[in-house]
Structures are given as structure tokens and as C-alpha cells.
Amino acid sequence: MKVDPIKRALELRKTVVKNDKILVVDYSGTLQGKDTSKVIDVMPNINTGEHVFRFKFNVKEADPLARKKYKRDFFDVSEKTDKEIEDFVKKHEFDFPLWYKHTKRFKMKNILDYNPPQIIQVAGCNFHDGNATGGCWYCYVDNKSNDGKPCTGKAYLSIGDYIESAIANRERVKEIYKEQADTDMDIRVLRFSGGEPMIALDYLLELWRKIDKKGLDFVGQLDTNLSTGIVVDKFEKEGIYEKNILEKLSRFEIKVLTALKGCDEQNVQDNVQALTTLEDQEYSLRKILNAGLDIYPQAYNPNPETLKKYLTDMDKKIKNFSLKIHIGPLKAYGPTKQRLTLEAERLGINPDKFIKKTQEKWDSNYKNSCEVINDYLMKACGVGYKETVRPDVELKVIK
């Protein structure tokens, strides 16, 4: 039975936020921790020892350590022009480091500072019903890490510990790159992921107020599954959130990854196993955009048969929307394989064959959807998919 994402978000709020602390994933011993620790190991809350920070290497070819671990050809930014760097990065699936192109201290030659964010994950997702196979089928987060229940494998993180640890982690990473690659790197991005971070915006706002007060030069990324715009309204009305909380967050250098979970009603609900809708997705998008935040839509497993209609409809509602979308490729990582294995066992079919068939379907949808959006953009805008630099694309809600 599909979960009600609004009801579930309200339930999760009771356990995810506790006084001035937030429930986050402790990656120690998790499948996700193993999958994401090939370059830099997970790092701790320096005051408790719980390993609540991980790193994602978005453009692996440009990173002197990641490219070795992942066996990629090296793109040495120190030997490239600004245009060459920009053109290289914008073509990648994860162009995140370019999102900060228009921030004060950004320089193309120092793009590696924005490439591996420090990530904490809110330990609860409102698409997840608490069962072993709940949530998005392709989610790379361990099921236990998404159920919102305080237990071993999760930790409460205070804002003070977050900031102290982020500073310490940045220095440690700087040392590692100097020692192992003779590279100066000063990581800048703090990514607030999950789970669904929109159920803990009050924590995030206070965090950035303190970062600003301390004069720290971090920038931020906020992730959302685009189901909780209504929840933000409710929390503001009840006084859980300050009024206009998203507008207040927009005053800081925070970029928002808005995860489009599908492009038609059935596509969305099949992907996430929840009773969310395209209307919920659009409402959340509009709310975030109207607040003045810079969003970056990422579409996951869209239905290529209905994608063109979706793009056409959304471009009539949000100017330049299709120019700013990227489609994310999906891969069955450890937690994903575990979820699909359990589902195969429930269905009484061979897990390996089920995983293989599912991956093939994801790959086909990705390939075909990229072709659809490329053809659409060529006809509608005269440019191909990924020929634009997303931070140069301004979105505007059409009244």
C-alpha cells in the first residue's frame, strides 16, 4: 500500500528534530557508507565520534584522487582555460560544482573546491513507510537510514557540532589532498540531504545564520523530493517554522536540488511508492522558486513516452524550465540491490534476474529520455541538451 507523504512527513517531524538537534545518518557499517568511501572515508562529529559526514565526488575526472579510484582519464583543471573547464563540467551528469559560478569567491580554476560537498543526511524520508522495501525503488540510502526511528546507526547532531566538525573535516581533506596529490583544495559546500530535508528547515535556517555570523566562507546545497511544499505551509501556520522561512533561506548562498520523481502521475507514484502527485511536485517547485532560491531540477527515471508533454506543459508555467533540467542516470548501488532483492523474494522470483531487468529498464528510460529532451530543446530553444550552463539559466514562475 502506498504511503501518504504528507501524513508521513508530519510523523517524521516528531523524531527527526529534537530541540536544537537533528536526526542524521551515521554511515558506520552501512551499505551506503561503503559505497561512498572510495576516495575519502566518512568523517565524524568531532565531539561524539559518530560518522555523520560523507563526501560525493561529482566530476571524478577532474579530481586527482577520485579519477584514480574510479579509473578515469584525468582532466587537469590547472592546465585548462576557464571556458574549457566550464564546457567540460557542464556536460557531466553531476554538474554541481558549476552551480556556484555566480557566487562571490568562485573561480573556475578553483572549481575543485566546489566538487566534493560535505553531506549530512536527514534520517527520515516521507516516501518511506518504515518497511524494508519502502521509498523510491532506486534510492541509494539504506532503508534503515530512511525510517526516521532513533536507533543505532543514527545520531542527533547539534548545530554547534555540525559547524565545528565541518571546519575540522575541511582541514583534514585539505591535508589529504596536499599529501597524496600535491593539490590545494579548500572544500566549500555543505550539502543538506536525506531523507527529506524540508521537514527540518528551521534547523537549516539557524545553521546558516550561525555560519554567517561567524563569517565562514561555506556555501550550501539543499535537497528536496518536491512533496513537502504543503508541509512547509502547515509548519509556518502552526509556528513550527518562522513565517517566510524559504525567503529567509534565500538570503544565503544555498542552491536547491529539486528531485523530479516522474513526469506523469503513474510514473511518479511507481517510482516513489507514495501517493504524491504532479500537482504536489509543481506546487513545491513554485513555492521554492517564488521564495527566490536558485533551483536545479534533476529528473529521475522519467517516462520517455510522456516526457515531451511534461516539458511542454511546464515551460508554459515556469520560464526556461526545460533548459535547466538534468536527467539523472540510475545505478543499483548496495542499498538499491538490497531493496530490489527483498522485493524479488516477496514476489517469488530470482533476485539477480529481477535486478538485471530493473537496471535495463532504468538504462532504457535514461537513454530515451535524454533523446527526448535533446529533440525538444533543439526545436523549442535552438540548443541541445546540456549545451547551456545551468547557473546562467534564469527560471521565472509565469503568473
Task: Please supply descriptive tags for the structure shown above.
399 residues, alpha/beta, TIM Barrel, 13 helices, 12 strands, 40% helix
Molecular structure report:
This protein has 399 residues and is an alpha/beta fold. It is 40% helix and 13% strand. The chain contains 13 helices and 12 strands. It has helices spanning 5-16, 31-35, 66-69, 82-90, 159-181, 201-213, 229-238, 245-249, 265-272, 278-290, 307-317, 334-347, 351-381, and strands at 17-18, 21-25, 54-55, 118-122, 154-158, 189-194, 219-224, 254-260, 294-300, 318-319, 326-328, 396-397. The protein has a 7-stranded mixed sheet with strand order 3-4-6-7-8-9-11. It has a 3-stranded antiparallel sheet with strand order 1-2-5. Helix 5 (159-181) crosses helix 6. It is globular and about 50 Å long. The mean pLDDT is 96.
- Terminal CA distance reads 37 Å
**Total strands:** 12
CATH homologous superfamily descriptor = Aldolase class I
Number of helices: 13
| Principal-axis shape | globular
CATH topology: the name is TIM Barrel
Judged by helices, strands and strand pairing, the structural class is alpha/beta
**CATH architecture heading:** Alpha-Beta Barrel
Order of helices and strands: HEEHEHHEEHEHEHHEHHEHEEHHE
- The value of Rg in angstroms is 20 Å
Return the domain count: 1
Which strand order spans the largest sheet, edge to edge or round the barrel?
A: 3-4-6-7-8-9-11
For this structure, what is the CATH class? Alpha Beta
Extract low-pLDDT stretches.
none
Classify the helix fraction into a percent range. Answer: 25-40%
Taking the sheet with the most strands, its summary is: 7 strands, mixed
Indicate the proportion of strand residues: 5-15%
Oligomer: single chain
- What's the mean pLDDT score? 96
